[in-house]
Write a structure and sequence with these properties.
This protein is an all-alpha fold. The chain contains 18 helices and no strands. Helix content is 77%, strand content 0%. The longest helix has 32 residues.
């Protein structure tokens, strides 16, 4: 079994970066949005900006890759610089006056965008530093640390933001004392936002230690030159089309989970701790359990068959969550979503390594992340406007249908992918006489 010379140091530093990414994941999906709603009284526009922060970074990722190519920056040096800038933006968000929701939202966008914009460069590092036969396995193992960090931090941050241990443990005097102590700490939400800046800073240091070589010069002079691969590679184009439909539906419903559970309009009015449990802790436990399984399947399974399987899981998870107000229905939807998300993590982060020429992985990934960013910016805005007129249950059914349509587009490509892989395999050597 081949061992890449940089495999071990990459894997070691990736564990630090992944743990920090788990903390940041809770920021983008839940806590920054919750802070905007509860402490800044943010309106739909400001909340949409906060929800779209990571997607904005994805949308800008082709420009980031192009700059790294133009100035011959090693990918990890460029990523480390971006994360450092994100830490400064998080500090600004933590210090924002509560009467300035737009300033807070913009600072959150810059902080989350810095992390998301670096993803194509890190994918190139995985291509260069991880052997192909173990890439999914190694990636999923570091992702398990990300999930574990998200689970632990989500629980602790939920209690820090709105103490509720006494409700969970009504007979515990220690829980009551902890709640009372937390209530005496002023400005707890600011310390929470500051912790996201600390995670960005630690991740910047870890990435800086990963060896990487400068990218090849850009294949064109335009910052969006990599878009030409959409025209030239039919399977890549079909995958992007299906991912656009599925991703738009999924990204529209992610912030709706917080809205559905936390807005008194829908009759649930869950606490911050309960919202964190249903949107972060339970799904992430399912992700933690299933992540290594999906990592192995990614290395061995037909990619399009894997993608269709995941899509069906996302559709079922959305339907179960948003068509029920019963606790067990919400838990079931959270579990199904978490199981599917575990596979989606690996597939989304590595799938271009199965399509792209090795030296152009960052370019292919930049195209993928740009389209992800486009739908990620649009989806929260559309969702927060539509929820003013339609119930989350109606929106969930529509989005589930979009995901099934995306799956139908990919079914014919399962055989095309099998033929493509067969053509790529070298012919068997004749037996020795």
């Amino acid at each position: 079994m081949t061992q890449h010379p940089h495999e071990q140091i990459t894997f070691r530093q990736e564990r630090w970066r992944s743990a920090c990414a788990g903390v940041l994941e809770t920021a983008g999906n839940t806590f920054l949005l919750l802070v905007a709603t509860r402490y800044f009284s943010a309106g739909p526009v400001a909340k949409s900006l906060v929800a779209a922060g990571g997607s904005t970074g994805l949308l800008l990722s082709p420009i980031v890759v192009n700059a790294a190519q133009r100035f011959a920056f090693p990918p990890t040096r460029a990523v480390s610089t971006l994360l450092g800038l994100g830490a400064v933006a998080a500090l600004a968000a933590a210090l924002a006056p509560t009467g300035w929701p737009v300033f807070y939202a913009v600072a959150c966008v810059l902080a989350m965008a810095s992390s998301a914009a670096s993803i194509p460069l890190m994918t190139q590092v995985y291509q260069d530093n991880y052997p192909a036969e173990r890439r999914g396995k190694l990636y999923s193992r570091t992702f398990m640390l990300r999930i574990a960090a998200a689970i632990v931090f989500a629980f602790l941050a939920g209690q820090w933001l709105e103490p509720g241990l006494a409700r969970m443990f009504p007979d515990g005097s220690i829980a009551l004392r902890v709640d009372r102590w937390l209530d005496t700490i002023p400005g707890r939400f600011r310390w929470l936002v500051l912790s996201f800046g600390a995670a960005l800073a630690v991740a910047a240091v870890a990435v800086r230690r990963i060896p990487s070589k400068p990218l090849l010069p850009a294949a064109g002079t335009h910052p969006l030159h990599a878009m030409k691969y959409v025209r030239e590679d039919r399977l890549f184009r079909q995958a992007l089309l299906a991912w656009m439909l599925m991703g738009f539906a999924n990204l529209a419903m992610i912030p709706m989970r917080v809205e559905y559970l936390g807005n008194p309009r829908y009759g649930l009015s869950k606490t911050a701790g309960e919202i964190a449990l249903l949107t972060l802790v339970i799904p992430n436990v399912a992700r933690l359990v299933m992540s290594p399984v999906w990592g192995l399947l990614f290395d061995r399974m037909n990619f399009f068959a894997l993608r269709v399987t995941l899509n069906v899981g996302f559709a079922l998870g959305i339907a179960a969550f948003f068509t029920s107000d019963h606790p067990w229905g919400l838990v079931l939807g959270s579990v199904i979503y978490g199981v599917s998300n575990a596979g989606g993590d690996v597939a989304w982060g590595l799938w271009v390594t199965k399509f792209a020429p090795p030296a152009r992985v960052a370019d292919y990934m930049a195209v993928h992340t740009a389209f992800t960013g486009l739908r990620g910016v649009l989806a929260p805005f559309v969702a927060f406007q539509l929820v003013q007129r339609f119930t989350p249950a109606t929106m969930g059914m529509v989005c589930g249908t979009l995901i099934l349509v995306a799956s139908a587009i990919l079914v014919p490509e399962i055989r095309a992918w099998r033929l493509r892989q067969a053509a790529a395999e070298p012919p068997a050597e004749p037996p020795a006489e």
